């Protein structure tokens, strides 16, 4: 289940959905006194404003001359009135034709069946590698740099590997370990049979794991309590039934 959140929160859009540029109603971003882009516009993990603790969001406004594809997320963008009408129309259309009680029951009672079927039909050809990971989550830079020492990254909802593999391709830390976990056994098969898995096998372990499973199965196989430095959860809770949220 390869679905949103990580160690920080942002109004992230799925990779295939990028908002159309609309004039913002919020104040314009401050001008930088130098030729370098201001921190909220920087692509460098060294100067990215989000390196501060806690992360500081709310400065990356989408202005009329901006390229909406430059960043994966924009802060405090208020849609124009005609866009709001379209959004409301879409919501009403969805509410007018909900999933039938029969389908809701079978999807919620046998979720593994449907996730496995999904990944059987959509392997590495469905999702694209996430190129924005280090920009949006600068903590990844600190754990993957050379000499960072023993570090452990747990990815929950690893899907076909479109997060773990980009992280490992940028890794320079010989002591980094990544646990890529997913509810779907078929998704884990996709990762394990990938050429990239063999390439990064020294640093990567892929395991089937249900985030909402109660003790004693509330940790992935081989992972000890307190061993994780960074948890990545991207588009995950939206794939869980609300009754599972508290346990997760």
Class based on secondary structure composition and strand pairing: alpha/beta
Helix-strand pattern, N to C?
Answer: HHHHHEHEHHEE
Strand order of the largest sheet: 3-2-1-4
Oligomeric category: single chain
Ends apart, CA distance between termini: 14 Å
What report would you give on this structure?
The chain is 26% helix and 9% strand. The chain has 248 residues and is α/β, with parallel strands linked by helices. Strands 3-2-1-4 form a 4-stranded parallel sheet. Helix 6 (164-169) links the parallel strand 1 (151-156) and strand 2 (176-182).
Features:
alpha/beta, globular, 248 residues, 9% strand
Write the layout of secondary structure elements.
Blueprint: H1 81-96, H2 101-109, H3 111-121, H4 133-136, H5 139-144, E1 151-156, H6 164-169, E2 176-182, H7 185-192, H8 195-199, E3 204-208, E4 230-233
Parallel strand pairs: 1-2, 1-4, 2-3
What's a concise summary of this model?
This protein is 26% helix and 9% strand.
């Amino acid at each position: 289940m390869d679905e949103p959140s990580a160690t920080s929160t942002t109004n992230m859009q799925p990779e295939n959905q990028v908002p159309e540029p609309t004039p913002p109603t919020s104040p314009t971003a401050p001008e930088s006194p130098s030729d370098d882009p201001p921190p909220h516009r920087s692509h460098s993990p060294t100067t990215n404003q989000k390196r501060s603790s806690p992360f500081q969001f709310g400065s990356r406004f989408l202005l009329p001359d901006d390229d909406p594809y430059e960043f994966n997320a924009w802060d405090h963008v208020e849609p124009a009135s005609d866009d709001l009408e379209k959004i409301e129309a879409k919501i009403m259309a969805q509410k007018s034709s909900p999933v039938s009680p029969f389908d809701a029951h079978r999807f919620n009672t046998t979720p593994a069946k449907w996730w496995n079927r999904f990944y059987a039909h959509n392997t590495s050809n469905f999702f694209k590698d996430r190129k924005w990971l280090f920009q949006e989550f600068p903590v990844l830079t600190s754990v993957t740099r050379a000499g960072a020492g023993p570090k452990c990254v747990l990815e929950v909802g690893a899907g076909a590997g479109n997060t773990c593999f980009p992280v490992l391709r940028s890794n320079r830390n010989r002591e980094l370990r990544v646990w890529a976990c997913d509810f779907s056994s078929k998704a884990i098969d996709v990762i394990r049979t990938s050429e990239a898995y063999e390439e990064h096998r020294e640093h990567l372990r892929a395991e089937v794991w249900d985030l909402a499973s109660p003790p004693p199965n509330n940790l992935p196989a081989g992972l000890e309590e307190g061993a994780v430095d960074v948890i990545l959860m991207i588009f995950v809770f939206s794939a869980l039934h609300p009754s599972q949220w508290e346990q997760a």
